Amino acid sequence: MDQTRFLAGEILLAMPGIGDRRFDHAVIAMCTHDEEGAMGVGIGDTIDGLGLHALLKQLDIEPGEAPDAPIHLGGPVETRRGFVLHDDSWSGQDTIDVAGKWALSGSIDVLRAIAAGSGPSRYLIALGYAGWEAGQLESELSRHGWMNVAGDGALLFDVPTATRWRGGFERAGIDPRLLALGAGTA
Question: Where do the TM regions start and end (predicted)?
Answer without folding.
Answer: none
